[in-house]
Amino acid sequence: MIEQHRRIIEKLTDRQVVEQLYFTQLLMLIVSFLLGMFMFDHWTDFTALWQIRDMRILTYGIGGALLVIIVDAIVMKVFPAHMYDDGGLNEKMFKNRSIPHIVWLTLLIAFSEEILFRGIVQQQFGLEIASIVFALLHFRYLSKILLFILVVSISIFLGLLYEWTGNLFVPVMTHFVIDLVFACQIRFKYWGRDEHGRNVENEEKKAAADKHP
């Protein structure tokens, strides 16, 4: 299934991948809004889930993200790359994006997914149901059991952060920092390759100019 997913991704341009991302996140926000209309009696019931002056946004939010990043780094050292390969989607999505665009995309992803999974599904049905729904939406990873376990474990961890704090800003911050760090890693990897490619191209042009004064 991952290989089939990879072949589909390879046929898409970078722009098409980003457009699909925007469409998916917009769809999540629309679904969240529609479900929220039925699940919350008042708008203030939803806004009460957001507490901007809570220091746990930094301590739990960023601290939780660092924990996930460290665990992920250990997994990448211990297990071969093919066991956590996602089919190239993230590389296609972030390798040519500017840093401001990456910040915006990862912030959008964090807000839209946490509003749906934590603010709507978990808030109304509990952590277990939210985790099951999340797992079902990521069924394409079942052929990569390690990747599937990692993705679902992170979702459960984000759910626990929300359970512990009761503040949606906390899992949003954790989700944002995790995605931002991983996306920037991809971008910087290709940044070096782009710079090397430009240097080689300049050297070739210079050599050609020297041959034909």
UniProtKB/TrEMBL annotation:
<feature type="transmembrane region" description="Helical">
    <location>
        <begin position="146"/>
        <end position="162"/>
    </location>
</feature>
<keyword id="KW-1133">Transmembrane helix</keyword>
<feature type="transmembrane region" description="Helical">
    <location>
        <begin position="60"/>
        <end position="79"/>
    </location>
</feature>
<dbReference type="Pfam" id="PF02517">
    <property type="entry name" value="Rce1-like"/>
</dbReference>
<dbReference type="GO" id="GO:0016787">
    <property type="term" value="F:hydrolase activity"/>
</dbReference>
<dbReference type="InterPro" id="IPR003675">
    <property type="entry name" value="Rce1/LyrA-like_dom"/>
</dbReference>
<keyword id="KW-0812">Transmembrane</keyword>
<keyword id="KW-0378">Hydrolase</keyword>
<protein>
    <submittedName>
        <fullName>CPBP family intramembrane glutamic endopeptidase</fullName>
        <ecNumber>3.4.-.-</ecNumber>
    </submittedName>
</protein>
<feature type="domain" description="CAAX prenyl protease 2/Lysostaphin resistance protein A-like">
    <location>
        <begin position="98"/>
        <end position="181"/>
    </location>
</feature>
<keyword id="KW-0472">Membrane</keyword>
<feature type="transmembrane region" description="Helical">
    <location>
        <begin position="21"/>
        <end position="40"/>
    </location>
</feature>
<feature type="transmembrane region" description="Helical">
    <location>
        <begin position="99"/>
        <end position="117"/>
    </location>
</feature>
